[in-house]
Specification:
Layout: H1 5-22, E1 25-28, E2 31-38, E3 50-54, E4 76-83, E5 90-95, E6 102-106, E7 109-114, E8 121-124, E9 136-142, E10 171-176, E11 180-189, E12 194-202, E13 212-218, E14 224-230, E15 240-248, E16 263-268, E17 273-278, E18 283-284, E19 293-294, E20 297-298, E21 301-306, H2 308-311, H3 324-336, E22 341-344, H4 351-360, E23 363-367, E24 371-374, H5 375-378, H6 384-398, E25 404-408, E26 411-414, H7 416-425, E27 435-436, E28 449-451, H8 470-475, H9 485-488, E29 501-503, H10 522-528, H11 535-555, E30 561-563, E31 584-586, E32 591-592, H12 594-603, E33 607-611, E34 617-618, E35 622-632, E36 638-648, E37 651-662, E38 667-676, E39 681-691, E40 694-704
Helix pairs in contact: 3-4, 6-7, 11-12
Length: 709
């Protein structure tokens, strides 16, 4: 046969199409599945009585499969979906997260299982598939946490009751060729304007070529900032190999919460192509003390907590955690509160939440779902090696997210096991993020310790505050944040752990969304304030004191971060009542309680205020010294006008103005002498500045009772 130029072009086109067909395709299996349940793990059911969305939870099945008011104890839930797939060298199923104990069956055959409940799982489906273009049956079963092996983490949380099972993150098929890019890790070097890329390859044979092409683009604009080819020179001679190389970027934009600039790297082998997004940012310990360094500059963390696995048990949850617009709006609401940080607390949200945090700009303290007070009391059979095996699967899923800056092994738990496990795996993260280990001794001087200074906790136990007021009992002096490892699990040598402190819980004044108290705060309001407060009065007390406490912990500059608890949780005012809650009055539309915004948002302003006055009363006919702290979180000097006013009800008694300058990430303390009238009544002193167009104020209210008039 004569080969013409035209035929050559056709052959090249077909070859290119064949090659492209072997490149990676990702097929979403999200959407409606069939579902049924059995009492135990059994033969694969044949009758599926309900429908359910994936991702989601078991309580979303229609018709319902269980009594929605009861905990999920012993049942097994079977999901079924049919699919077709084109011929490919490699076919993998990825389940981002499912709980509890996932088993996978393809065309009636057992394809594998995942004992872990908070990490992704990959399953090789190739051996079980029918021929090209034939329909395949996929069945995934999940059980209840009571039936888990005692060597895995079950997500224990003393303030949850249901532990609802389900496939709660995305499910997809991956079809591609070899060498398969099974993992990518990216570590930015912002000083030299380059990135280190570590790519793991799974090859068809040990002899297969290990060459990879790369393109790095700005994610939004698509602008190419680097491209090329990397070949290691000599073949590793292994079927699973690792490429480790560095790429110089032509243009660098740093990622911060204020400017969350994203890149993506495309890697391509002879048979596969992958895309991974990342940000050019570093997060490191400050050798001079103070906050951590973001991109080499001091950066104070201001934020909140998200308890997604508690919210899973909220009566109004519905499909909100998987509604992209709702999750994006939630993080936007957090931004509006002057927050730049979030602890994803006692449990990991779906992957999409991390992508949104990357895009909108948050620093994430990423906490594994361990809360046990004493680890050996809840997990007596779980060893450090067991934990390390879970962590090894957990870290790769999140280590390319620029938002994830701290690995958090656990919450409020004395657990040598978590420390040992973190030692076993921390070297795997080439960005060398710090690790937080709850109430356990920090592994490294650069690791943070969590502090939960719940000043109102003692009053929940029927202790009575002084007549001066509960805050005056504590805040008349500078307190080193406590309720941390130094109190719960002190250094046996007697020395204090002086690691960076992150306060990520404080107050102990929770109210449900309807303004009612929780089981933890029933006594607090009666003891500290007044019995029989109305809903509106409780909300007023809560929001004002949350604002004042936030000001206090930030103003003294003893913490690398202050994160309020809690931005998202459940609200359970009815039996079985809940212990904590969030601050929304309309969870579907994400409307905050107005007084929460009024009093707490200014307390988190990057340029913030604190009037250092905590008494309920003041003496009349006196010149009272009021200290005003002004702090600046910015890495540049801030200039402005500070106004201090004294009011009786709506009547202005006096006003004082001061032109002030605060150094970068610094603080000033201004003493203002104000004459307090000798007239009985209710007074309010307000310190006020304007920051980036926002009104920021600190308010203290007091009464004058010793008038001679």
């Amino acid at each position: 046969m004569r080969i013409t130029a035209g035929l050559i072009l056709v052959l090249l086109f077909l070859a290119a199409c064949t090659d492209q067909d072997q490149k990676r395709h990702q097929i979403s299996l999200n959407g409606e599945w069939e579902i049924t349940k059995t009492d135990t793990v059994s033969d694969i059911p044949t009758n599926y009585s309900s429908k359910i969305p994936v991702p989601g939870l078991i309580d979303m099945a229609v018709p319902v499969l269980d009594d929605q008011e009861l905990a999920y104890d012993n049942s097994v839930y079977w999901y079924r979906k049919r699919f077709q797939v084109k011929e490919a060298d490699l076919v993998r199923l990825k389940i981002n997260m499912a709980k509890y104990h996932t088993r996978v069956y393809v065309n009636g055959q057992f394809a594998g299982e995942n004992l872990y409940n908070f990490t992704p799982a990959l399953f090789d489906l190739k051996p079980f598939l029918k021929g090209k273009n034939q329909e395949n049956e996929l069945v995934i079963s999940v059980g209840c946490r009571n039936n888990l092996p005692d060597t895995v983490i079950n997500g224990n949380d003393f303030e949850k009751i249901k532990y609802i099972p389900g496939i709660y993150d995305e499910v997809k098929l991956i079809t591609t060729g070899f060498p398969y890019i099974s993992g990518v890790q990216i570590a930015p070097d912002i000083d030299k304007g380059r990135v280190r890329i570590v790519a793991e390859l799974e090859k068809l044979s040990a002899e297969q070529d290990e060459e990879v092409d790369y393109i790095i683009r700005e994610r939004v604009s698509g602008k190419v900032v680097a491209e090329g080819n990397y070949a290691p020179g000599t073949n590793s001679g292994k079927q699973d190999s690792k490429l480790d190389f560095t790429v110089q970027l032509s243009d660098v934009n740093l990622w911060t919460p204020e400017t969350p600039f994203l890149y993506e790297v495309e890697l391509e082998t002879a048979g596969d192509k992958s895309v991974t997004r990342f940000g050019m940012r570093t997060f490191t310990h400050n050798p001079e003390g103070g906050p951590y360094l973001l991109n080499g500059e001091p950066y104070y963390m201001r934020g909140t907590n998200v308890c997604i696995h508690r919210f899973f048990e909220d009566p109004e949850r519905d499909d909100l955690p998987w509604n992209d617009q709702w999750v994006t709006t939630l993080h936007s609401r957090f931004k509006e509160m002057n927050w730049n940080s979030i602890r994803y607390c006692i449990g990991l949200p779906p992957e999409r939440w991390y992508e949104i945090a990357d895009s909108l700009g948050f620093l994430i303290q990423n906490e594994y779902p361990i809360w046990a007070s004493r680890f050996d009391g809840i997990y007596p059979k779980v060893t450090a090696e067991h934990l390390a095996n879970e962590f090894k699967v957990w870290l790769p899923e999140h280590w390319n997210h620029p938002s994830v800056v701290i690995w958090d092994a656990q919450n409020e738990t004395i657990a040598p096991e978590t420390v040992e496990a973190s030692k076993m795996v921390r070297h795997l993260d080439i960005s060398n993020r710090p690790w937080e280990n709850g109430w356990s001794a920090p592994d490294n001087p650069t690791d943070p310790i969590e502090s939960h200074p719940y000043l109102f906790h003692k009053y929940a136990r029927n202790d009575h505050p002084s007549e001066k007021g509960p805050l005056s009992d504590h805040l008349y002096k500078v307190i080193i944040p406590n309720n941390d490892v130094n109190q719960r699990n002190p250094n046996p040598e007697g020395a204090r752990y002086d690691n960076p402190i992150i306060i990520n819980e404080y107050a102990w004044l929770w109210l449900n969304r309807d303004g009612s108290t929780t089981t933890l705060t029933d006594r607090v309001y009666d003891v500290c304030f007044s019995e029989n407060l109305t809903k509106e009065q409780r909300i007023d007390v809560y929001t004002k004191h949350m604002g004042m406490l936030t000001e206090y912990w930030r103003a003294h500059r003893l913490c690398a971060g202050v994160l309020h608890f809690c931005g998202l949780a459940y609200s359970r005012p009815e039996d079985p009542r809940g212990q904590t809650s969030d601050h929304f009055i309309d969870i579907k539309n994400l409307t905050f309680e107005p007084k929460f915004v009024q009093y707490v948002k200014p307390a988190f302003s990057p340029v913030g205020l604190m009037i250092n006055f905590w008494k309920r009363t003041a003496a009349g006919r006196s010149n009272q010294q009021f200290e005003v702290y002004v702090i600046n979180d910015y890495n540049e000097t801030w200039d402005g006008t500070l106004k201090i006013s004294l009011n009786e009800e709506s009547r202005i008694i006096s006003t004082h103005k001061h032109e002030i300058t605060i150094p970068a990430t610094g603080r000033i303390i201004l003493n203002s002498e104000i004459s307090v009238p000798d007239v009985k009544g209710h007074y309010k002193i307000t310190a006020h500045i304007e920051v980036d167009g926002q009104q920021v104020q600190s308010i203290r209210e007091f009464t004058v009772e010793n008038s001679t008039n």
